[in-house]
Design goal:
Blueprint lengths: L7 E7 L4 E2 L4 E6 L2 E7 L5 E2 L10 E8 L8 E7 L6 E2 L2 E4 L2 E4 L4
Parallel strand pairs: 1-8, 1-9
Antiparallel strand pairs: 1-2, 1-5, 3-4, 3-6, 6-7, 9-10
């Protein structure tokens, strides 16, 4: 199996519907600067949010989720090892959310 290039990816799951969340706008910021803005695919994923080489530093993912309560959810995280892939999944329901460091 080929090793993937270090990057940042995400997967959004809508637990209210029990399905991947399609068409969710996801923005990636590094040091306050917008790096990428994409939408989740039919499987609720964005495979590569980084254009070019991943660099160490503080990043922020902004999810514009389909929820009657949340208008957007933000997750700030630190990339200490830019040689590793970083997967940040989001689980969302109308009145709750959770995220974690995926593989």
């Amino acid at each position: 199996m080929a090793e993937r290039r270090p990057s940042i990816s995400t997967h959004v799951l809508d637990t209210d519907r029990g399905l991947p969340a399609r068409g969710v706008r996801v923005e990636l910021y590094r040091q306050g600067r917008l790096v990428s803005a994409q939408q989740t695919n039919d499987d609720g994923r964005v495979a590569d949010l980084v254009q070019g080489a991943l660099e160490a530093g503080v990043y922020r993912l902004v999810f514009h989720v389909p929820s009657p309560f949340f208008s957007k959810l933000e997750v700030e995280f630190n990339v200490a090892d830019a040689g590793r892939h970083h997967h940040i999944p989001l689980i969302v329901a109308p009145y709750m959310c959770a995220t974690y460091r995926g593989s």
